[in-house]
Design goal:
The chain is built from three helices and 18 strands. The chain has about 325 residues and is mostly beta strands.
Length: about 325
């Protein structure tokens, strides 16, 4: 869990931290953040190093994200959110608040599955999301969803989406349904997630399953915070289609401790079984997060392969600017 408090504005997580010690931050917020229009930027510069490379990719530097976003609320209960990364469209959503317990979203946006997936790239605990969430969680898609509170402590989100993650049409001719129900009280947040793919098409076997290779996917996530401590975890299991690896599953458990006002120590155990015989991947990841200012963050992760990866530990460093 990040230390910065956040406020939700049309689905955009906006850092709300500001103080007399950061007058330029306060000036920036006053100029680019308002209820009808809010501009956002996320820049992430990542260093990746492993002496004996066994992870995908290459050692070196990369710009992991360079995102621009625009969102806000309008008259009549309408809201909107647009986001682009390197010029490619990520989100284009229009929402309508029909009732205090019912909001309707339409466009391209994140399907309501997994707390870690739904957390923005600038707000996740580690440099990368967990293996199972990255591989299995349904992606952004074109569709329609409803969301809102069921009670004071209970919330829901249900949607129907195109079967593919493209930004135009539905060439696969399939639909998928995704649902999430969450409950929270006194620092504890729990949610169950489910997703179902259409069955019109049989895929060829895939060595590395994703949600498109599944009939169904179910999972749960939990977050508990108390004082300086936090713990979180997720578990997901899928049912493979005919001709694909059967029943991939995985999850993670994270423990975090706030060691100072603007720093946090973390450790994560991350496990993923792809469903392919012998392809099981387990990682232990110590991490350190530091927020020098309200707009900047430094993340340092040491990825220790316990199973499924050969070679030395992997070092990941993320330098981030976000507002």
């Amino acid at each position: 869990m990040k230390l910065r408090s956040v406020a939700v504005c049309a689905g955009l997580l906006l850092p709300s931290q500001g103080s007399a010690q950061e007058p330029l931050w306060d000036q920036l917020q006053s100029r680019v953040k308002s209820e009808p229009i809010s501009l956002g930027v996320l820049f992430q510069f990542v260093g990746d190093a492993q002496s004996d490379r066994s992870f995908p990719g290459e050692s070196g530097f990369s710009v992991a994200n360079f995102r621009f976003s625009l969102g806000g609320r309008l008259d009549g209960g309408f809201e909107y959110f647009l986001q682009s990364n390197f010029g490619s469209l990520l989100d284009a959503r229009i929402g309508f608040n029909a009732h205090p317990s019912l909001a309707i979203d339409a466009g391209r946006f994140k399907t309501p599955y997994s707390r870690e997936f739904l957390t923005g790239a600038g707000g996740i605990d580690f440099v990368n999301r967990s293996q199972s969430v990255t591989a299995l969680a349904p992606n952004r898609a074109l569709g329609v969803a409803i969301r809102g509170p069921l009670a004071e402590e209970l919330s829901y989100s249900v949607g129907v989406f195109n079967g593919g993650a493209g930004v135009r049409g539905n060439p696969r001719g399939e639909m998928m349904g995704v649902a999430r129900v969450g409950w929270q009280r006194d620092g504890l947040e729990v949610a169950v997630n489910a997703a179902r793919n259409g069955d019109r098409r049989v895929l060829d076997p895939e060595d590395d399953p994703t949600f498109s290779a599944l009939r169904t996917l179910v999972g749960f996530d939990v977050l508990f915070t108390q004082g300086a401590w936090m713990t979180s975890g997720e578990f997901h299991i899928g049912d493979g289609r005919i001709g694909t690896p059967d029943d991939p599953w995985g999850g993670f458990a994270t423990l975090g401790y706030v060691m100072e006002e603007n720093g946090q120590l973390l450790v994560r155990l991350d496990h993923f079984d792809t469903g392919v015989a012998g392809d099981v991947r387990t990682l232990l990841i110590p991490g350190w997060n530091l927020w020098p200012t309200a707009a900047t963050e430094l993340q340092v992760n040491v990825v220790l392969p316990l199973e499924g990866f050969d070679g030395d530990p992997r070092l990941l460093v993320n330098l981030q600017l976000a507002f």
